[in-house]
Amino acid sequence: MQQTQAKIQEFLSRFFRNHDLQLDEDIFALGFVNSMFAMQLVLFIEQEFKITIENEDLDFANFKTINAMTRLVESKTNVVTPA
């Protein structure tokens, strides 16, 4: 979890240099995200974590904070073993 958070935070810090972004800060409410950056963010997450973001995953709630993105990545990468 911490490694995922760190990678996402590092990516975002390249764009938000003058702001120490916290894990639960809403990047949309802060005004940091436009449509072009949202596309970059989705592409980064797909490539960095080797996952596919499906249409049903494209919800603001999944991308508004570092913690939300971490939960999304972990939900897409956790393999559930049958009981």
TrEMBL record:
Residue stretches spanning the membrane: none
Domain Carrier: 1-77
InterPro entries assigned: ACP-like_sf (IPR036736), PP-bd_ACP (IPR009081)
Superkingdom as given in the UniProt entry: Bacteria
UniProt xrefs under PROSITE patterns: CARRIER (PS50075)
Pfam families with a match to the protein in the record: PP-binding
Record's protein name: Acyl carrier protein
Highest classification ranks of the organism: Bacteria, Bacillati, Cyanobacteriota, Cyanophyceae, Nostocales
